[in-house]
Design brief:
The protein is an all-alpha fold. It has a domain of 30 residues. The chain is rod-shaped and about 105 Å long. The termini are far apart. It comes from Salmo salar. It holds the Pfam family BBIP10. InterPro entries: BBIP10.
């Protein structure tokens, strides 16, 4: 890529303090703990277990009179 000449030239102080504007950088934050199972999945599993229990009870109720 060709170098573009600027109409401004860089000036650095010979003595004193040199300051620079802060450049935004990425900051790492604490990892967030995610549940292994979502609330919806837990509800579905609970509903499935309840349905299986109900089917077992119905089967046992049908077998008892015989």
């Amino acid at each position: 890529m060709p170098e573009v000449k600027s109409m401004f030239r860089e000036v650095l102080p010979k003595q004193g303090q040199l300051s620079m504007e802060d450049v935004p950088t990425m900051v790492l934050c604490k990892p967030k703990l995610m549940p292994l199972k979502s609330v919806t999945l837990e509800k579905l599993e609970k509903m499935q277990l309840e349905a299986q229990e109900a089917i077992k009870q119905q089967d046992l109720a049908l077998k008892e009179p015989q």
